[in-house]
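In this section we walk through a basic example: taking a raw amino acid sequence and producing a predicted 3D structure, encoded as C-alpha coordinates. The instruction is simple. Fold the sequence below.
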Amino acid sequence: MRDQPLRRDADRLIASVRFTGLIREDASAAANPLDEIWHVAHPWASAEGDWIIIGIQQAGA
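The resulting C-alpha coordinate sequence is shown next.
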Protein backbone atom coordinates (compact mmCIF):
# COMPACT_ATOMS: atom_id res chain seq x y z
CA MET A 1 0.00 0.00 0.00
CA ARG A 2 2.84 2.41 0.72
CA ASP A 3 4.21 1.86 -2.78
CA GLN A 4 1.02 3.02 -4.52
CA PRO A 5 -1.08 5.30 -2.29
CA LEU A 6 -2.47 7.02 -5.43
CA ARG A 7 -3.07 5.23 -8.72
CA ARG A 8 -5.10 5.40 -11.92
CA ASP A 9 -7.55 2.61 -12.67
CA ALA A 10 -9.21 3.02 -16.08
CA ASP A 11 -11.32 6.22 -15.86
CA ARG A 12 -10.86 6.88 -12.15
CA LEU A 13 -8.21 7.87 -9.65
CA ILE A 14 -7.91 5.69 -6.54
CA ALA A 15 -6.33 6.79 -3.28
CA SER A 16 -5.58 4.60 -0.27
CA VAL A 17 -5.39 6.29 3.13
CA ARG A 18 -4.33 4.53 6.33
CA PHE A 19 -5.98 5.50 9.61
CA THR A 20 -4.46 4.40 12.93
CA GLY A 21 -5.24 5.29 16.50
CA LEU A 22 -7.79 4.49 19.17
CA ILE A 23 -11.57 4.41 18.82
CA ARG A 24 -14.26 4.35 21.46
CA GLU A 25 -17.69 3.00 20.45
CA ASP A 26 -19.34 4.29 23.64
CA ALA A 27 -18.34 7.09 26.02
CA SER A 28 -18.03 4.67 28.95
CA ALA A 29 -16.26 1.91 26.97
CA ALA A 30 -12.53 1.31 26.75
CA ALA A 31 -10.75 2.57 23.64
CA ASN A 32 -9.75 -0.05 21.08
CA PRO A 33 -6.94 0.15 18.52
CA LEU A 34 -7.87 1.15 14.98
CA ASP A 35 -5.77 0.26 11.93
CA GLU A 36 -7.70 0.57 8.65
CA ILE A 37 -6.97 1.45 5.06
CA TRP A 38 -9.75 3.34 3.29
CA HIS A 39 -9.83 3.13 -0.51
CA VAL A 40 -11.55 6.06 -2.25
CA ALA A 41 -12.17 6.83 -5.93
CA HIS A 42 -12.72 9.94 -8.03
CA PRO A 43 -13.30 10.41 -11.79
CA TRP A 44 -9.97 10.91 -13.62
CA ALA A 45 -11.31 13.46 -16.09
CA SER A 46 -12.39 16.13 -13.59
CA ALA A 47 -11.10 17.80 -10.45
CA GLU A 48 -14.73 18.49 -9.48
CA GLY A 49 -16.94 16.15 -7.50
CA ASP A 50 -16.73 14.00 -4.42
CA TRP A 51 -14.44 11.12 -3.55
CA ILE A 52 -16.43 7.90 -3.06
CA ILE A 53 -15.44 5.20 -0.54
CA ILE A 54 -14.96 1.96 -2.48
CA GLY A 55 -13.56 -0.18 0.32
CA ILE A 56 -12.31 -0.34 3.89
CA GLN A 57 -9.57 -2.84 4.74
CA GLN A 58 -8.67 -3.96 8.25
CA ALA A 59 -4.88 -3.55 8.16
CA GLY A 60 -4.00 -4.57 11.71
CA ALA A 61 -5.85 -7.89 11.68
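Looking at the output, two observations stand out. DSSP finds no helices and four strands in the chain. The chain has one domain: 6-58. In the next section we compare this with other chains.
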